[in-house]
Amino acid sequence: MNLIYYPNKILKIKTKKVEAFDKNLSNIIKEMKELMVKNNGVGLAANQVDLDLSLFIAKPKDKFYIFINPEIMLAEEEEIKEEGCLSIPNKWGLVKRYKKIKIQYQDIKGKKRTLKASGLLAHIIQHEIDHLSGILFIDKAIEIYNLKND
Ligand code: CO
């Protein structure tokens, strides 16, 4: 499993619904988690590792989250946030996001769940759900800037 970088086409697809909640799925998630942690990421979507699946993981701080077939149900209070992406190294942007969201998703066993999120987790979830629809932060950023490498 490797990270996929912009402008790879898989980053522009609308990912397919996960149907099989099996050993293969848990292996995929385990590998994604290792890759995300190794790269100091706080979120990673399946199409960023070349998999056409509607799932992402998140680790805003210590807690690790898995979201399968996620959908945003409610979103409230817009704000402008600074963000980057493991698939677009050395770029940052300012993006309009919601402060509070409610999502529905399935867990690793396929059980339907809902979650209310705010703060960093809400921000990550919106970025990752965009990935699963083929949307990158550079597509909606109101400003993009480059990190300087000296
Ligand atoms: Co990203």
Would you give an account of this structure?
The chain has helices at 23-38, 119-132, 137-140, and strands at 43-45, 55-58, 65-85, 88-106, 112-118, 143-146. Strands 1, 2, 3, 4, 5 and 6 form a 6-stranded antiparallel beta sheet that branches. It has 150 residues and is an alpha+beta fold. The chain starts with 22 loop residues before the first helix and ends with a strand. The protein is globular and about 40 Å long. The chain contains 3 helices and 6 strands. A hairpin with a 2-residue loop joins strand 3 (65-85) and strand 4. The longest helix has 16 residues, at 23-38. The chain has one domain: Peptide deformylase (Peptide Deformylase, Alpha-Beta Complex), CATH 3.90.45. The structure holds cobalt (II) ion. Cobalt (II) ion is lined by residues 85-87, 127, 131.
Which key terms come to mind for this protein?
3 helices; Peptide Deformylase; 150 residues; alpha+beta; binds cobalt (II) ion
Write the layout of secondary structure elements.
Layout: H1 23-38, E1 43-45, E2 55-58, E3 65-85, E4 88-106, E5 112-118, H2 119-132, H3 137-140, E6 143-146
Antiparallel strand pairs: 1-2, 2-3, 3-4, 4-5, 4-6
The chain binds cobalt (II) ion (CO).
